[in-house]
Specification:
Elements: E1 2-11, E2 14-24, E3 29-33, H1 40-47, E4 55-60, E5 63-64, H2 69-73, E6 76-79, H3 91-101, H4 108-122, H5 137-149, E7 155-159, H6 167-180, E8 185-190, H7 193-199, E9 202-207, E10 210-215, H8 217-225, E11 228-235, H9 238-246, E12 251-261, E13 264-271, H10 278-288, E14 292-297, H11 302-311
Parallel strand pairs: 3-8, 3-9, 6-7, 7-8
Antiparallel strand pairs: 1-2, 1-4, 4-5, 9-10, 11-13, 11-14, 12-13
Helix pairs in contact: 4-5, 5-6
The structure holds adenosine-5'-diphosphate (ADP).
């Protein structure tokens, strides 16, 4: 649905983004993650046709954004970082206006039905008569989302959609986005890690203008640990349990840590790269009659991953596809 290849944008002699390539399938919700100044907005502005690329191409629904901008833009709903709201209009007036400037086709009946539907999707039906300036930050953001949805685009590009909102509003907007993603392709940029874990199935990490990783949040965490580290709590005699786990193929080390419950120790178990030893360990312990009371994954959090990927400002990390 979105194909970006070799995208480079320079501002004067300053590099905004360099050689960015990725593609996004229909129906995916993809997080675009990176520190401030990484190049997220630049990439989004090029995909949406607000900026032209210095090199490379962006296609939306198979249409090149530079060659055929009007057709490509019909597929895109864009929520820039500062929503383009007219604060002295009511919500109704504003959405009517957006309907006109987007050139959506339809008579009075279709227009009313469409705007009703959009308001319902983002939860602003009850504030439609109110002047936008008097709405809370959360409702203003919903109005921004509503304008992106006018014309029923199949791709939504949302630049930092929860910036400046309070924690309750953030959760509400994230839920709206997840709902919208059920039948749309969404790119959402953020510098907030929890946002990616909460909303996205896939994450593109951008740093210093380059793509440094493209993966699922969970796989990214697991991949970057190298070895899988698992923490077990197991009831039974320590020495026998250590021997039992060591006998499993792929296990590199077993280290007892604390007696967490009477008669049950915790063990840190490391297995070789790309081996998931959990099933074998479970079977081995079950055969020997030592019950597993707790199992925790010690892989890196997305936060650790992000710090690793963006620590070296000069070169792309190995995780980039
Ligand atoms: P992000 O959205 O990740 O915060 P941006 O895409 O806004 O990052 O910026 C990427 C880089 O391009 C930054 O170094 C920024 O200073 C630079 N940049 C962005 N817009 C302009 C501009 N209009 N003129 C000059 N440099 C810019």
């Amino acid at each position: 649905m979105i194909e970006v290849s070799g995208l480079t944008k320079t501002y004067g002699n300053k590099r905004g983004i360099t050689d960015i390539t990725f593609s996004i399938d229909e129906g995916e919700i993809v997080g675009f993650l990176g520190p401030n100044g990484a190049g997220k907005s630049t990439t989004m502005n090029v995909i949406t046709g607000y900026l032209s690329a210095t090199a490379g191409a962006a296609r939306v629904a198979g249409i090149d954004i530079l060659e055929n901008p009007l057709e490509a833009k019909k597929h895109i709903g864009y929520l820039p970082q500062d929503p383009p709201l007219y604060l002295d209009m009511t919500v109704n007036e504003y959405l009517d206006f957006i309907y006109d400037i987007k050139g959506v086709k339809g008579g009075m009946k279709e227009r009313k039905e469409h705007i009703d539907k959009v308001c319902e999707m983002v939860g602003i039906s009850q504030v439609r008569e109110r002047v936008i300036n008097n709405l809370s930050g959360g409702y203003k953001q919903r109005c921004g989302l509503a304008q992106a949805l006018v014309g029923d685009p199949d791709v939504l590009i949302l630049d930092e959609p929860t910036v400046g909102l309070d924690p309750k509003q953030i959760i509400e907007i994230r839920n709206v986005i997840k709902d919208l993603g059920k039948n749309r392709t969404i790119i959402l940029s953020t510098h907030i890690l929890q946002e990616v874990s909460a909303v996205c199935e896939r994450v593109l990490v951008i740093n210093n203008g380059r793509l440094v990783a493209d993966d699922t949040p969970t796989h990214l965490s697991a991949m970057l640990t190298g070895d899988h580290k698992l923490e077990y709590r197991i009831a039974g005699p320590k020495d026998k349990i250590i021997a039992c786990i060591r006998s499993v193929d792929g296990v590199k080390s077993v280290t007892p840590t604390v007696e967490a419950e009477p008669g049950a120790y915790e063990y840190l178990v490391e297995s070789a790269e790309h081996i998931d030893a959990r099933k074998l360990i479970f079977q081995s312990l079950a055969r020997a009659g030592y019950p597993v009371l707790l199992l925790k994954n010690q892989d890196l959090s997305l936060e650790d991953v992000f710090i690793r990927l963006t620590a070296d400002k000069k070169s792309p990390a190995k995780g980039a596809k």
